[in-house]
Amino acid sequence: MIIVLIPLLLASPALAEDGGDDDFSFLEEGEQNRKKFEADRAPAANIFLPDDDDVLPTWDAPAEDSGDIDDDFDFDLPSDAEAGMGMEMDPVEDMDGLGPDLSDRRPLGNHFPLVVSQSDLGATVAELPVLVARNPLDLNGDLWVVADVYLDGIKVSESRHFVSMTSAATLGPTYVWLKATVPVAAPSGVVEMRVFAAPPGKKEALLFVQKAPFAL
Predict the structure, then answer these.
(1) d(Cα 208, Cα 163) in Å, to the nearest integer?
(2) Rounded alpha-carbon distances, angstroms, from residue 77 to 50, 68, 81, 96, 149
(3) What is the pLDDT of residues 54-85, one digit of tens each?
């Protein structure tokens, strides 16, 4: 019996060596997978935590809320009477001092000078403002205001303005600006405007004549 068992004991390590690598390969594969899994994981939280020696900064909270309103601040709110004063004011009276006094100026009168000037566009221009109404009560209906423009006695152009009740200013006077280009052919001359007015469909009546000499 002893002679038979010895070969068997000697053969067993050979069997273990022959199949050992294959039998335990799953352990090596598991170890590799574990290392790969840990490499893909997020870093540990203790990386971001300070050491015991590190001290985090602290901030002291303010003793008082900065958004609180100072009790000593005076808002100076207007009283009910003062708050309603704006609604009681007359808008017509508020216009006092914003323009010339027109109480003694008749509508469609000869109140302003004729001005001849050089425009920024390079043309010579004649301009004349005409007071049509001091307030809407001066208008009785639609109106045409017309100006014939003369240069050295020769008619060169015409300016026409239509004024209606809806185009009149409600809080101040209503004007039209008679304006025309003067075809200057000499370094000096005389511009004349003959101003007319009439309701639509009626013959125009001459109101006044303005003249202005000029020299370029």
Answers:
(1) 18
(2) 56, 19, 11, 29, 60
(3) 555 565 555 555 445 455 545 454 555 444 44
For residues 195 and 147, give the distance between their C-alpha atoms in angstroms, rounded to a whole number: 4
Domains of the chain: 115-215 (2.60.40.10)
Please report how the helices 25-40 and 2-23 are oriented relative to each other, as an axis angle in degrees rounded to 10.
20
Q: What distances in angstroms separate CA 161 from CA 80, 113, 132, 164, one per listed residue?
A: 48, 18, 11, 10
pTM for the whole structure: 0.55
Rounded mean pLDDT, 35-41: 61
**Paired tokens of 32:** 């590799």
Q: Please give the Cα distance from 20 to 13 (Å, whole number).
A: 10
Tokens of 175: 């004007």
